[in-house]
Each structure stands twice: as C-alpha cells, then as structure tokens.
User: Fold this.
Amino acid sequence: MSPYLIPVVALIISATPGLKGAETVWSGLVIAENVAQPQPIPPELTRIEGSLKKFFGYNQFQVIGQSQKTLKTGQEDWLATSKFFGLHVDARGETEAGYVLNLKLYKEKELLLETDTKLSKRSPLVIKGPQVGSGQLLLVLVVQ
Amino acid sequence: MKTFEEKWTAWLDGQLSGRELAEFEASLPDKAAAEAEKTGARKLRQLLKDELGVRALKNEEFFSHQLRERVAQQRDEATRTSAGRRMESSTWWTIPRLLWTGTVSIAVFLVCTVLVMHDKSPSEESQYLTQILNARVDPIVSPNATVSIFEVKQDRVTVLWTEGLQSLPADYAAK
Assistant:
C-alpha cells in the first residue's frame, strides 16, 4: 500500500502553497537611457522588458547595482548598492501573497525616498527614482 | 402342419395342451430324457431372464450415470459461465483499487483546485499584485516631489512613480 501512498502525498504537498520553500528576491538599481545602440536587457528584467519600455520610454536598461537575497524567515534585510546609491530592503514578514518590505533609497548617506510595500511573489515592483544625466534611475524588485 | 422342431419348442415353452400335447409326448422316443431337457431349458430361461433383468438394470444405471454426468457437466458449465461473468465484472475494480482510485481522484481534484485558484482567480488578482502601502519623499531634499502608483496588470507590474526629485549629474550612474 505504501508505494501508492507516496505519490499521493507528494501531489498534495506540492499543491499546498503554504509548504513552499524559501524564495529569492532580486533587487536592482537600474539606469534607463535612450541610446543609439542599446545593450541587451539584463536577464533579471527580461520578463518586464515590455512594461519598462512602454512605461518609461527608454530603450536601454543597465544594472548599476544589485543584490539577491534568499528569504527564509521573511525577516531579513539587505542592501543593493552602486557607487553613489544604496537601496536598503528590510523584510518585515511574509504573507500568503508575498513579503512586507520597507525600502529606503539613499544617495550616498542622504535618504531620498522611503516606501512600505507588499511585494507579491508574482508581481515585480518598479520605482522611478531621480533623473541621472540623460537617464533615469529605476529601482526594481522581483521575487524569483 | 407343425414340424417336429416347432412342436418341440412349443412343448419346451409349455404351449402345447390337450390332444396335441398327448400326441407329441406319445411321439417322443425317450420321454425321461425329453423331460430332463425341458427342465434344463426352463433353468436356462430363468437364468437368461435373470441375466436380462441385470442387464436392464445396468442400462438404467448407465442411463442414470449418463444423466448424472450430463447434469454435472451442465452445472459445471453454468458455474464456469457465472464465474466468467463475475471475473469479467470484477477484473479490475476490486475494493482496494476503488478506494485508491477514489483517493487519487480526490488528490488530483485538490491539486487542480489549488492551481486554478492560485493561477486564474480574477477576483483575487489584486492581492497578487504588489501593493504600495505608503511612500515618503524627504521634503527638505525634494520639497516639490510627488508620488503616484500605477499597476500594469498585463505584466502584473506595480510602479511607484515619483516626480520632482532632485536631478543628478551623469556621474551618479556609475556602478
């Protein structure tokens, strides 16, 4: 009987969302620009390439800082930095839909922007930051 | 006119009577030997009668045996047919298999239900979009800044749109 039981239990476990394993959040600082010969979009942004281009009107997106964090407790915090910017992400719990995050964008040591979000596991977040030269700073968070 | 042999046979069988019997017995050359032969013939007849009776009984028994065999054969055929029907009707659907099939069906149903609810429930789509709970811009650094929230449902992207943040030189795009 037990050989029949194993696949049934496996099916039920695999279908139960509450029992899923830890997930990874990718957070990136992205400079969006319009250039004559755009570089290929980074793989982390591929799934939202259309929305980025349509929404912001740029043809090139380059990552200037990034971080990948695997969340186990949903209480972790981490930092994605470039030379001048820093994005501090503080996870404050996990819900069925995703993670509750506090985000702070720093320019060097100066706080530019703070927001609290419920980051969905299936819905990326894009934050329009300040204008940088001819481009635009974007903050992107994706649950992978 | 009967021949001697016919009269002899009739005499042995006791079928002669009256004058015919007297005449025949008078014509016998040795009546004592004829009487002995008649007695022997009677015994033989009795023996044959007995034997025929036994044979008739054997035939009955044989017939009865045949009948019993036929009945048994028909009973076997009937048993085999009904067993075959039972085998056909219960070849695969034994009770344990029915139980397992039911269990697996329920499990598959649960999996499909969870997947469908997880993937395609439009009424609950909003809870699967990232939500901006609040946003603040430093009023000293960027006094005229405003924030707006957009949702691109096609790609399930949530956008926090800021306006009026202080612009920075291109050097700040460095990695």
Summary: Chain B has two domains: 4-87, 129-175. Chain B has a mean pLDDT of 82. Chain B touches chain A through 47 residues (CB under 8 Å). The longest helix of chain B spans residues 31-89.
